[in-house]
Specification:
The protein is mainly β. Helices cover 4% and strands 77% of the residues.
């Protein structure tokens, strides 16, 4: 098993290194509730429009890297997924026989991308301090390649019109 503790105890310098990483992080987050009140239309009275948004997406990441002497290479894999919910509600307030419209959109999002990279790291000028060689000047050259994320989204849309009928009772 290779780790820094074993390397220090064995007092051997390794020529190869490798690393593995995993993670899950929030990628986007939506949370709003806006209300617009319009009283300029005298025929309808007060019209209230409400906009709601909630949900988010997440990024699941995995990566592997390998180093041999002065050369390094790495690969990162990313999967993005999540749900976004939007609601738009509009209708006249305090008006009988008026309609209230509801529009609900649910988005189920997923996407995948990957990145590849190589790196060359060479010490040009070194200095010895306490029997350790320290690089003062380095030449570092690298190249990366990444794919664009191709997202797919399934959309569920629900549209409802509700008629507001007032009923009165007389004695």
């Amino acid at each position: 098993l290779q780790n820094p503790i074993n390397e220090a105890l064995d007092k051997k310098k390794r020529t190869t290194y490798s690393g593995l990483a995993f993670g899950l992080i929030p990628f986007t987050q939506i949370s709003y509730n806006l209300v617009q009140v319009d009283s300029t239309n005298t025929d309808l009275g007060i019209v209230e429009t409400q906009f709601l948004g909630s949900g988010g997406t997440y990024k699941l990441m995995g990566g592997y890297s390998y180093k041999y002497k002065n050369f390094s290479a790495g690969l990162n894999l990313n999967y993005i997924f999540g749900n976004l919910h939007y609601t738009h509600k509009s209708g006249a307030v305090f008006v009988t026989n008026s309609n209230t419209n509801f529009l609900n959109d649910d988005y189920h999002i997923s996407g995948f991308n990957y990145d590849l990279g190589i790196l060359y790291d060479k010490a040009i000028k070194t200095k010895r301090i306490d029997n350790k060689i320290i690089a003062q000047d380095k030449l570092i050259a690298g190249l990366t390649f990444g794919t664009k994320t191709n997202y797919s989204a399934d959309i569920e849309r629900l549209y409802i019109t509700q008629n507001n009928i007032a009923t009165s009772f007389h004695d």
